[in-house]
Description:
Blueprint: E1 4-5, E2 13-18, H1 25-48, H2 52-75, E3 79-85, E4 88-95, E5 98-104, E6 110-112, E7 122-126, E8 129-133, H3 139-159
Antiparallel strand pairs: 1-2, 2-3, 3-4, 4-5, 6-7, 7-8
Helix pairs in contact: 1-2
Keywords: Membrane, Transmembrane, Transmembrane helix
Protein name: DUF2244 domain-containing protein
InterPro entries: DUF2244_TM
Amino acid sequence: MDASTGTETPASAEWLMKRNCSLSPRQALLVYALLCAATLGIAFVFTLRGAWMVLAFALVEAAAVGAALLHYSRHALDHERVRLEDGWLLVERADGTRRQAVRLDPSHARVSLPDAGMRTLVRIEARGVQVEVGRFLTPSARLELVRALRQALRGASLLYPGPAGSL
């Protein structure tokens, strides 16, 4: 859970929120390879001695652990990024293989935190488009994000009166 503020000039700001994972996908693959080598090596020795059922259970175990680590690896790089630059508020979300990006008008954006509860997310709304962020933050970090976003948007509304020709 990393809510870090990147470069903050009057015209740009960025907040990156990432999942707190102890293993990268590459490290998870290495752990899986080592585990499979050990398990299947021992099972192969038992198979040579006539206990072929040990190999069958070792293969089932390797498949189950592989499925669990695959799910873990798909979501290890999940993140949310809120970026304010060039007159736009860009909200990007990565969830497994799905990527979503939403552009909002910062001069009409409203940031709110409906409830300070554990599961309440930060709501950003502009011109009828609503996005929720902060899945990887603690409640206190969400409050800090709301304060920082409001401050940045207050400055952005003075710099950018809104895109030309927008409704």
